[in-house]
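Example (one chain per record):
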Amino acid sequence: MQNYRKLLTCLLAVTLFSCKSVLDLEPTDKILAKDLFGDPEGVKLYMANLYYQLPIEDFAFFRGGFNQNGGDPNNGGFAPAMVTDEAVHSEFGDFVGDGDFQWWDQGYKLIRDVNLLADAIPTLDVIEADKKKLIGESAFIKAYAYFALAKRYGGVPLIKQTQQYTGDVESLKVPRSTEKATWDYVMELCDQAIANLEPGDGKSRRATKYTAAALKSRAALHAASVAKFWGRAPMSGAAVTDKLVGMTAGDAAAYYTACIQASELIIQSGQFALYGANPASPEEAAENYRMLFANPNGGDKETILIKGFTLPGNFTGHNYDIWYQPAQSANGWPHPGRMNPTLDLIDLYERYDRPGQSSPVVTTTEGDVTDYGGFNAGLHYLQFDSPNDIFKGKDARLWGTAILPGTAWKGTPIVIQAGYVQPNGQAVIRTKAEITVNGHTYYTYGAANTSQYSGFDSYGGNNTRTGFSFKKFMNHTAPVVAGWNQSTSDFIEFRYAEVLLNYAEAVVESGTGNAAEAAKALNDIRRRAGHTTAIALTSANVQRERRVELAFENKRFWDLIRRREYHTEFNNRVVHSLLPLQDLRALPATKYIFVRVVVPNYTPKTFSERSYYRFIPGIASNGLVQNPQY
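Predicted structure:
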């Protein structure tokens, strides 16, 4: 037993959220359940395994699934943002496939594992306070699992207790519940977790009362949206007839109320606040926003739950820094620069002198922001002294999220240039070339070789093809380590700003709740971004704020799903780039102009309405009704 305790102590030294799955109660060569649950340290280890399995869409979440941080290339760096309008991959152009973002077998494994713990809790030799906490954590983990299943598949089998195999396979088969019953069970589990968990201090990496409330806020908003907007993309078939997918508009009200109440529990607790809530300038606001994600542990009261990546290496670190650093800071890694924010996203960010509306980047005196036809010598392009002057006055969160042309990263000006306009007025764009004028040589990509620039050259698929590189979450101090899973920046799973946005959306979409408080929540977030003018609480304003505040936090995909906007937003859809060009017509002055274009080599994308639900695997053996159109 002494050796057993030492083993457990060593394993527990790894942060709970950094623990690889190590337990399976079925094989006889593993620790027996009675021994594991009979020791308090064994319970802690088992709980660590449950937390590891949580379907958190973090730095190790790719289209292939969760915890994709083994010794592999993580789908070539293809992140969920790249199937939305937030970003494109520097090289690949894939879209939402039937096999992407699945979580069925893994989901029911987690549910089985947490049911085993829940069954054992009454028998544990621990004080009642610890039992109550375990009951709350078990409910939270199960709620999280069913939330992940419900948003993918609609109604699913609800297995509320451990199943016992008696030799009859048929007795183990559980039919799908309705989508509404599934969402109601998620709400029930969240309430059970809230009732049993302590408030905590907001710094825990394990569930607290407020973590459970944050989960309920997010899940209830998702359910309410599906109910309210189901009619935007109605379906038919057996699954719809049996109400296994789909809800009615009348179902939305209760879920919006649940979201409002869960959000108010957090807001009124007084334990949480926005990090850097009152910046003195937009520059300070940009740095506060960047630092919140670069170092979540310094996020003051904004963080509600963090997933830790505290150790470099397989199953403990992640690969964001090697995939998404601009090419100039790759430090020998051969495949950087792969997250390319789109012009579509950049256009959303407001200007401080035009509050309350998106501010597309204006490139010509004619002011046309819908012309994507490429360089036109007949247009009057606005000239700028610096390749980032065109973005001056835009929302601080843009500067904290994207690396803009000519801005510094790790002490190096990042060169993102697509070409030049020759003194004779002819443009050379996205073709490696050079020209010498008055004894000085100019290069299309802004420098002579591939180690000196980060844009548009197709060399190795390592340069942005949108005109923007990536900053959010990136480590700005340490050099890139050329190897798998060497990044250890942590991920914020729940944060206060999301709760405020959930609250504002639930109030405005339902027409209930405290509209004044919801408007304040919306404008508090904007104030943290350096805005000084309040805007009205409208659905459009809330959605724009969600997109810029939560960019690249893997929320946009599900926002398009739950609001049933994907099939209209992506109907033969293209996304766009901004080409910075050096204008040699202005010599001897150095000037830059910009051209709006469709992302080079981009294939238009169309979202299939059946993809609002994932297909259910194994229906030949489990006897379940398949989702529509599969």
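Caption: The radius of gyration is 26 Å.
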